[in-house]
């Protein structure tokens, strides 16, 4: 999909069936669907991927958090890594086909993950969010610093609403990642259109 990236992330709290139903509706507007299901087994994630595929979501748009083995076995587009995951350089060497994202939280970490071979970075949280209670947001100024320090795309995450998008775009970030703003919306299709319109304006 041309233009800025829109990633939609499962929250690990709702059933994958609901996430799949939403993805079926909104995938024309979305760059990547992340399966971030820490409590699911490899077999359950495998089934989730094939449910998405059966509903018409292109596998190239599916990204699996942490489980590089399942990502490789299912032929999805990529994997999202964290500090608990295999090192980026290990995944790059062993699974060269996958697009590799890495979650980072400061400039130093961003530069290091870029050197290791990450294709893009997920940086946040930018604004206050219920998923990070008691943790202050990093804000757009910190995002701007990260974007200026690395040559690869930076995707902003955390408490982002459609009216925040222009602030994000102004930093030079490549796009945004959304959790509850779409998956917990009463009208996910309207919500995703609102985010896409803000990204494209």
CATH class: Alpha Beta
CATH topology: TIM Barrel
CATH architecture assignment name: Alpha-Beta Barrel
The total tally of domains equals 1
- What integer is the average pLDDT? 94
Number of strands: 8
Radius of gyration: 16 Å
- Residue share in β-strands: 15-25%
Largest sheet: 8 strands, parallel, barrel
Instruction: Give the CATH superfamily.
Output: Aldolase class I
Question: Helix- and strand-based class?
Answer: alpha/beta
Q: Can you list the strand order of the major beta sheet?
A: 1-2-3-4-5-6-7-8
- H/E element order: EHEHEHEHEHEHEHEHH
Number of helices: 9
Low-confidence stretches: none
GO molecular function: thiamine-phosphate diphosphorylase activity
GO biological process, one term: thiamine biosynthetic process
Protein name: Thiamine phosphate synthase
Pathway: Cofactor biosynthesis; thiamine diphosphate biosynthesis
């Amino acid at each position: 999909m041309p233009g800025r990236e829109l990633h939609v992330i499962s929250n690990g709290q709702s059933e994958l069936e609901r996430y799949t139903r939403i993805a079926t509706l909104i995938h024309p507007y979305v760059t990547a669907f992340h399966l971030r299901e820490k409590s699911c087994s490899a077999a359950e994630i495998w089934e989730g991927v094939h449910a998405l595929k059966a509903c018409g979501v292109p596998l190239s748009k599916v990204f699996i958090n942490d489980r590089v083995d399942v990502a490789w076995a299912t032929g999805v587009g990529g994997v999202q890594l964290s500090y608990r995951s295999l090192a980026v350089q290990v995944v790059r060497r062993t699974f060269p086909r996958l697009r590799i994202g890495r979650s980072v939280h400061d400039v130093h970490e961003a530069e290091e993950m870029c050197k290791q071979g990450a294709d893009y970075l997920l940086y946040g949280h930018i604004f206050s969010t219920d998923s990070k209670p008691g943790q202050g947001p990093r804000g757009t100024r910190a995002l701007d610093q990260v974007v200026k320090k690395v040559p690869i795309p930076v995707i902003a995450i955390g408490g982002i609403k459609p009216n925040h998008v222009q602030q994000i775009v102004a930093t030079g970030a490549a796009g945004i990642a959304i959790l509850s703003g779409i998956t917990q919306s009463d009208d996910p299709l309207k919500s995703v259109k609102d985010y896409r319109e803000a990204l494209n304006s």
